[in-house]
Design a protein that fits this description.
mainly alpha
């Protein structure tokens, strides 16, 4: 957040707590931390390029429709309008079942035309610069753009953990590894879609809010945070979680310091951020109202009208089980258009997730027993609440969507993958205890990297041969 002006107030110093490992950890020098972060980033890029090269054009979820949006912007300089007929369901299902053989005609698949435009405007530049390449190479160039956004998300998430828990560099690197090596995240970061940019901007916004909570904002900092929130909203609707998160950050800041004369009042800063966000994003809302009607400012109603999707139906035990299993499996590894599951790894990943959950419960119990000054507890609690609210809001968005449509795709949780990765690795760390925590976090990171490499070689590459 280089542009956000942070005032003179230092970051609070916290005593040892349930959210910080006690003693025994091998210290990592700043230089070694950065070196390891670079290694993680490079390994992620190599894996994503492997996915890009192995996966034929259009064999990622909704990729043809995203491609057609990019092409429309590049060729016309205008935004498309979603209309009835833009979702040729029979054609889509036929091509999906045939796994999009070379030469597939995708011209009529345009059902993503309702999406916010920021990603497509940037991708259109890459499209125009690569028109001389063969089609597959041009598609790969746009996939590489998503990979770049993924690398930046890794860095921003690492920075969040370093700000939240400055005494735990192993946890920050393990969180970065989680983002880099969840196989499905690598897959979706090697696709033509607006997901990776939306994930990045929401992560950067959360980082800005965390720094605001810790150190206070100037007017300039509030404006910059608002611009980031506006750009996120201009990328993907799921990033609208940034608006309530900013309200929560302002409330927590006010709870901590009240009317701090050295910084902008938290709620004044919130209003400034909201105003800046609306200045960036508001024209898109107005355009939707003028295009689709007053009742459809986010273009969601027209999407529901045009795109035929399976309705959820009765909310019963079977529906809940279907949602939980489908979301879990596809969060980790379910490639193509969700047509290539990897059942041989799900049991082990469930066990690892259960262990992480037990570790988080241990951390919570330790926090409740902790005997430290009240002010320190309040400071740390506010930061944890803010970062925890990030994945909670994204999960609630996904639940709300699945109450209407059957869309059990774990990738819808990736806007909060930084927060999910943090609490996953935090749970493993606390379960292991302070002495074994660095070893366990390192082992978990290496295990995920190896899982990615093995699945790429044994599942992804053979699937398209």
């Amino acid at each position: 957040m280089g542009g956000i002006k942070l005032q003179e107030e230092p970051a609070p110093a916290f005593p040892a707590s349930a959210f910080r490992a006690e003693g025994g950890a091998v210290l990592l020098t700043p230089g070694l931390q950065l070196t390891l972060l670079v290694v993680i980033g490079l390994a992620y890029i190599v894996l994503a390029i492997g996915w890009t090269r192995a996966t034929p054009a259009w064999d990622n979820p909704d990729e043809p429709a995203h491609w057609n949006f990019v092409r429309h912007v590049a060729q016309t300089g205008a935004l498309p309008i979603l209309r009835p007929g833009d979702y040729p369901q029979a054609q889509v299902e036929s091509l999906k079942s045939a796994r999009f053989p070379p030469g597939s005609n995708i011209d009529g698949i345009q059902y993503e035309s309702h999406q916010p435009p920021l990603y497509y405007a940037g991708a259109a530049v890459v499209y125009k610069l690569t028109t001389w390449l063969p089609l597959k190479r041009q598609v790969d160039a746009l996939r590489l753009l998503s990979t770049i956004f993924g690398v930046l998300t890794i860095v921003a998430s690492w920075r969040i953990v370093r700000s939240l828990l400055p005494g735990e560099p192993y946890l920050a690197l393990a969180t970065a590894s989680f983002i880099a090596f969840v196989p499905m995240h690598v897959n979706m970061s090697a696709a033509v879609d607006n997901d990776a940019l939306g994930d990045l901007l929401l992560t950067v916004a959360v980082l800005g809010m965390l720094l605001w909570l810790q150190r206070g904002f100037s007017v300039r900092g509030a404006v910059i945070l608002g611009i980031v929130i506006g750009l996120a909203a201009l990328t993907k609707v799921t990033t609208l979680a940034a608006f309530p998160l900013a309200l929560l950050a302002a409330a927590l800041r006010y709870w901590r310091v009240g009317r701090d004369q050295r910084h902008v009042h938290p709620f004044v800063g919130l209003l400034i951020s909201y105003a800046a966000a609306l200045a960036v994003w508001g024209w898109w809302v107005l355009r939707n109202v003028l295009t689709y009607g007053l009742g459809d400012p986010l273009a969601l109603k027209v999407n529901k009208l045009v795109v035929t999707q399976l309705q959820t139906g009765a909310l019963n035990a079977a529906a809940i089980q279907r949602f939980a299993k489908g979301t879990f499996d596809s969060f980790w590894a379910q490639f193509g258009w969700m047509g290539i599951p990897v059942p041989q790894v799900y049991a082990e990943l469930k066990l690892l997730t259960i262990l992480a959950g037990i570790g988080l419960a241990v951390a919570l119990l330790r926090a409740l027993r902790l005997d430290v000054p009240g002010a320190a507890v309040r400071q740390k609690a506010g930061e944890v609440v803010l970062v925890l609210a990030w994945p909670v809001l994204v999960i609630l968005e996904d639940l709300q969507y699945n109450l209407t449509f059957v869309q059990t795709q774990g990738r819808y949780l990736f806007p909060a993958i930084g927060g999910i990765g943090l609490f996953f690795m935090l749970g493993l760390s606390r379960l292991a205890g302070p002495r074994l925590s660095p070893v366990v976090l390192t082992a978990a990171s290496v295990l995920l990297a190896a899982l990615c490499a093995v699945l790429l070689k044994t599942v992804v590459i053979p699937a398209w041969r």
